[in-house]
């Protein structure tokens, strides 16, 4: 009991001797709590405002204001873009940034869309759900502009993403399709073979298998034709030799 009283007396003595410091510390603690509380309320308010703006942009982008089912015109898309940008300014969000890029692309602003998507790949490189979509959209824009080699590199980057398993089969399929259009059949076939081997659950699996089998049948047919031509040539040569031998007989 005496020890408790002694401890209390020491605390009182410290308080009396350091009254100013104690008051200052208490004031700072109260101020810190007020600042943290204020920031939480402010962030919550910003989040609510950003969510509202994002939803308004979403409705415009997906034509939820239009009952006739017609595609959104340029004015509507521009308004949607403004809402998405305002939402992103209020609160940074990967899905909002992706919507900004998609809307820019829909408006034909390819350069701006690519810039936004490149920003996305750097800022949200760890977002395994949305990062593949950003890479895929970049490849789509590059293809639309006829930059096939760049599109192939982007699709390779998508396939080699270590942070996400998504859209890898799509990357292989689209790469094969581009290579076919470029006349690079052997490279395209390798992509189809890889797709068939690694992604049996892919919606592109049957197409890949079909392309591989078709190429195998073609090669077999070509080999048969070559063999037949060779046999016909050998037969013809043998017949000519026999004919020549008969003619030489007295």
β-strand percent reads: under 5%
Percent in helix? over 70%
Total helices: the number is 10
Gap between N and C termini: 145 Å
Number of strands: 0
What is the molecular shape?
A: elongated
Structural class: mainly alpha
Task: List segments where confidence is low: pLDDT < 50 over at least 5 consecutive residues.
Answer: 1-5, 34-43
Major β-sheet annotation? none
Average of the residue pLDDT scores:
75
Please identify the top-level CATH class: Mainly Alpha
Gyration radius from CA atoms, angstroms: 35 Å
CATH topology: Serine Threonine Protein Phosphatase 5, Tetratricopeptide repeat
Number of domains: 1
Q: Helix and strand succession?
A: HHHHHHHHHH
CATH architecture: Alpha Horseshoe
Name the CATH superfamily assignment.
Answer: Tetratricopeptide repeat domain
List keywords for this structure.
250 residues; mainly alpha; 80% helix; 0% strand; disordered N terminus
What's a quick, concise take on this entry?
This protein is an all-alpha fold and 250 residues long. It is built from 10 helices and no strands. Helix 2 runs antiparallel to helix 3, helix 4 packs antiparallel against helix 5 and helix 7 runs antiparallel to helix 8.
Helices and strands, with pairings:
Layout: H1 2-17, H2 19-61, H3 74-90, H4 94-106, H5 110-123, H6 131-144, H7 148-159, H8 168-181, H9 185-198, H10 205-248
Helix pairs in contact: 2-3, 3-4, 4-5, 5-6, 6-7, 7-8, 8-9, 9-10
């Amino acid at each position: 009991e005496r020890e408790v009283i002694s401890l209390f007396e020491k605390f009182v003595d410290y308080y009396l001797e350091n009254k100013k410091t104690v008051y200052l510390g208490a004031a700072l603690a109260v101020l810190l709590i007020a600042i943290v509380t204020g920031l939480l309320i402010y962030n919550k308010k910003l989040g609510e405002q950003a969510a509202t703006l994002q939803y308004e942009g979403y409705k415009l982008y997906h034509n939820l204001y239009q009952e006739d089912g017609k595609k959104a015109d340029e004015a509507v898309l521009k308004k949607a873009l403004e809402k998405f940008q305002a939402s992103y300014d209020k609160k940074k969000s990967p899905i909002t940034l992706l919507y900004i890029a998609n809307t820019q692309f829909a408006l034909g602003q390819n350069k701006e869309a690519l810039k936004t998507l490149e920003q996305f790949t750097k800022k949200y490189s760890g977002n395994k759900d949305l990062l593949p979509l950003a890479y895929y959209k970049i490849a789509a824009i590059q293809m639309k502009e006829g930059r096939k080699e760049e599109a192939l590199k982007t699709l390779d980057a998508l396939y080699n993403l270590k942070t996400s398993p998504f859209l890898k089969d799509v990357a292989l399929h689209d790469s094969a399709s581009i290579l076919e259009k470029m006349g690079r059949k052997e490279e395209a076939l390798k992509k189809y073979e890889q797709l068939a081997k690694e992604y049996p659950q892919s919606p592109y699996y049957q197409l890949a298998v079909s392309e591989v089998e078709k190429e195998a049948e073609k090669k077999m047919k070509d080999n048969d034709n070559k063999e037949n031509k060779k046999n016909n040539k050998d037969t013809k040569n043998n017949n000519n030799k026999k004919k020549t031998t008969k003619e030489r007989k007295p």
